Amino acid sequence: MWQLAFRNIFRQRMRTALTLAAIVFGVVGIILSGGFVQDVFVQLRESTIHSHLGHLQVFRAGYAEYGRRDPLAYLIADPVQLEQQIADLPGVEDVMARVSFSGLLNNGKADLPIIGEGIEPAKEARLGTALSIVAGRMLGDDDAYGLQLGQGVAAAMHLQPGDFATIVASTPDGAVNSLEFEVVGVFRTFSKEFDDRAVRIPLAAAQELLYSGGAHNIVISLADTALTDTVADSLRARLDASEYELEPWYELAEFYSKTVDLYRRQFGALQLIVLVMVLLSVGSSVNMTLHERTGEFGTLQALGQRRGQIVRLIVAENVMLGLIGASLGVAVGVLLALGISRIGIPMPPPPGSNVGYVAFIRIVPSVLGVAFAIGAMSTVLASLLPARRLTRVAVVDALRENI
């Protein structure tokens, strides 16, 4: 039966070619769209991690619930000891402390409310590979009173590298302190909202500004994003839950989670549309082919073939046709994905960002599997109804088609 089925699919070469073209088109469409969406996920994820959040962050217990209203009450008293405790975990590349504060930035003429961070410059430079310097340079460990400005802050305050500005902030005791800083650079991250309010200064300067030796959070950078959950589980087992709380990057990045959910729904709808299109186009071709072979099937029944055998023959033909079409579609889709990725697809800035990027088509095994399954099953599903209808045609009526 399988040998006969293989010979039959090449008897009507034009219709077979049209059916194969419909399958290949659908499979290629799924591979390219799925690879594009996966690239959006990966680039957005890595930009979110390596521009600001890191892979994991450790806070004092209660910070997530109450710390936003009173951050100075939830300082980690001894961040150095906690950093040393985390640094020897497998997969951890860097551990860095940060101090967060809010205050006013003064350029001698006007004030601007800002959200500030005290950072460890060398470690942050290794983490912040997605952070772009648009003017000046990165903050260095020897910049005791250096200041990095978000692009929006620099534009609003008309500041550039070499200028001086004063930061005014409140201390944990309720006093007001101010320090003068020299602007060393202007940065841009993936988030325009963050750039419009963010400034960065050395950790020691931030602790001096706040009259405190503590830190608000410990940021952990990993060797591979895939290790996030593994390291998080190990760290939770090591830390005292009554003193510290741990949050992975995907819980901190609300925008990423919403974007991924939106794109997954869109991709699911696209897969359904492609499946329907393939079914309709393949179904039309298969139906026409089977209709033209009505006389042939009548002859087979007259020679002793049973209806069930004819149905199995039709299904076998379409199984082989689907497998050939799906295989060709996967091969063409992979080649196109590689070719497009060598060139790249320039993309405009996504919502909430002012940075464009170059997209690629990623080859994702799960997407290849789904595309192959849709291509292979489409011809089988499309052949079931015509095959069932043909077997109900009386043998005498079917034989008349040979005249």
What is this structure, in a nutshell?
With 403 residues, this protein is of the alpha+beta class.
The average pLDDT value, as a whole number, equals 84
What's the number of domains?
2
Structural class: alpha+beta
Order of helices and strands: HHEHHEEHEEHEEHEHEHEHHHHEEHH
Low-confidence stretches: none
Radius of gyration: 32 Å
What share of residues are in beta strands? 15-25%
Total E-strand runs: 12
Query: Percentage of helical residues?
Result: 40-55%
With helices defined by DSSP (H or I, 4 residues minimum), what is the helix count?
Answer: 15
What is the molecular shape? Answer: elongated
Q: What is the end-to-end distance?
A: 26 Å
Task: Set out the fold topology.
Elements: H1 2-8, H2 13-53, E1 56-60, H3 63-67, H4 79-87, E2 92-106, E3 111-119, H5 121-127, E4 132-136, E5 146-150, H6 151-157, E6 164-170, E7 176-188, H7 192-195, E8 198-202, H8 203-210, E9 217-222, H9 228-238, E10 244-248, H10 249-252, H11 254-292, H12 294-302, H13 307-343, E11 345-347, E12 357-359, H14 365-390, H15 395-400
Parallel strand pairs: 3-8, 5-7
Antiparallel strand pairs: 1-9, 1-10, 2-3, 2-6, 2-9, 4-7, 5-8, 6-7, 11-12
